Each structure stands twice: as C-alpha cells, then as structure tokens.
C-alpha cells in the first residue's frame, strides 16, 4: 500500500498518543477502532473518516478540529473559528441565550471583515484606524 499523503496526521497522532502515555492498543480500545487500523493510520497508510478522528480526539482528550486540520479536512482558519465557537458554547458562566447572541455578534464581525467562507473579500480598512 502506498502512502495517502496523511503521514503528518499519523505522526501527529503517534506523538499525541505518546504524550498521553497510551499504547497503540490502549488508544485503539478507547477510540473503538482495531489495533491494525490505528497502526495503519499512524503509518500514513489509511485516511480515517471525520467520525474516527472525532473518536480518536475524544480518547486523546484533544480537539477534534486539530485532527481535522492535520487530516486536511479543515483549514487553519476554520479550526480557529471552530475553537472560538467551542469556547463560547462550553462556557458555563453564560446562559444559552447569551451564547447565541455572542455567536451572532461573532458571525456579524466576521462578515463585516470579510472573514467568512462565503465572502472572499478582504477588509478594505485593513491596518487603518477605525473612524468615529
């Protein structure tokens, strides 16, 4: 089998597994995948689905978005956006309504600054001081 250009993901997973002081078998069991399959992912021979990456992230106690970026499923900007959303949604000190309002404001700012994926334009005032 040839490499599927997912070697970086495999190396990253192996590093995270070692940092968590888990054996290949322990991580495979925790994530609900087979030992050989996880080994093939780590060696860059298999490209796991987003669902498998999520299971691995949960078992490693790391962000699934980080694994998605490593696997090429998400770009860096999308990961950053997902992390902001996750931080807002997981904050126990604010209400659900406040979380929704914060997300609406965040989306509004991203649209205004041309940062959303639907708008490819750059901010016209980039680097200048705001007026008013």
From TrEMBL:
GO cellular component: cytosol
Transmembrane segments: none
Renumbered residue ranges of the record's region Disordered: 112-132
UniProt keyword list: DNA-binding
Pfam assignment, any one: HTH_3
Residues in HTH cro/C1-type domain copies: 13-67
SMART domains: HTH_XRE
One GO molecular-function entry: DNA binding
Composition bias type Basic and acidic residues, residue spans: 112-126
Name of this chain's protein: DNA-binding protein
Taxonomic source organism: Streptomyces caatingaensis
